[in-house]
Write a structure and sequence with these properties.
With 208 residues, the chain is mainly β. It has 2 helices and 12 strands. The strands form 3 sheets. Strands 3, 5, 7, 8, 10 and 11 form a 6-stranded mixed beta sheet that branches. A 4-stranded mixed beta sheet has the order 4-6-9-12, with helices on one face. Strands 1-2 form a two-stranded antiparallel ribbon.
């Protein structure tokens, strides 16, 4: 298995939202305007390796978007949850299996989770399973390895990013906020804010 390199961004993230209170909570997103403003510049904090093997994972040259984590590319991404939901875009490549890995910087925490993927690809949401205690405050990296053949191989494509677990709920929690806006009218606006315009009309498929 190849280890993916991750660079921890130093900028903070601010998501400014304003909305009118609606008598029907389920409609509140329709009145919300999403504004994403990084507080400062940082290094790109994600890795996506789109190289593929065999025929099952071949990706056509007409794909508008390559294998991509759904995170801002120039600022830290936070969560307040011990078992957050991680989002990534997977091109249509025919693969139906993958493995999610989450580890901390010292690798004394290591989460492994097999997931089922839609063969047609698209944006997928993967919530960390409750098999372990989950994330404590600190910095982690996650990556999703796409299985192209009948068994996992070292050169299977990988997509991943950093994630920072915090207890301060006043922070702008990117992972929690983006998962909450999945499949709402504000999803497209959120994607445009982080320069993933090609994903603005994508439906999010939650997998396990």
């Amino acid at each position: 298995m190849k280890k993916i390199a991750t660079i921890i961004g130093t900028a903070s993230l601010i998501l400014l939202t304003s909305f009118s209170v609606d008598a029907k909570p389920q409609n509140s997103y329709r009145r919300m305007r999403v504004t994403f403003t990084p507080a400062g510049k940082g290094h790109p904090q994600y890795t996506s390796a789109a190289a593929v093997r065999g025929t099952q994972c071949n990706v056509g040259t007409s794909q508008q978007q390559s294998l991509t984590p759904i995170v801002p590319s120039n600022s830290q991404s936070l969560t307040g949850k011990s078992h957050p939901t991680l989002l990534a875009y997977i091109p249509e490549m025919g693969a139906t299996k993958g493995t999610l890995y989450v580890k901390n910087q010292t690798e004394d925490f290591f989460h492994v989770q097999e997931v089922n993927l839609p063969s047609k690809g698209g944006v997928v949401g993967i919530t960390m399973s409750q098999d372990d205690a989950g994330l404590k405050d600190g910095t982690y990296s996650w990556f999703l390895k796409i299985q192209c053949g009948n068994s996992a191989a070292i050169d299977d494509p990988v997509v991943g990013a950093n994630i920072h677990k915090v207890s301060n709920k006043n922070e702008a929690l990117w992972y929690d906020f983006s998962a909450e806006l999945a499949n709402t009218p504000q999803w497209g606006e959120l994607m445009n804010q982080i320069n993933l315009n090609s994903l603005s009309n994508q439906k999010v498929t939650f997998v396990n």
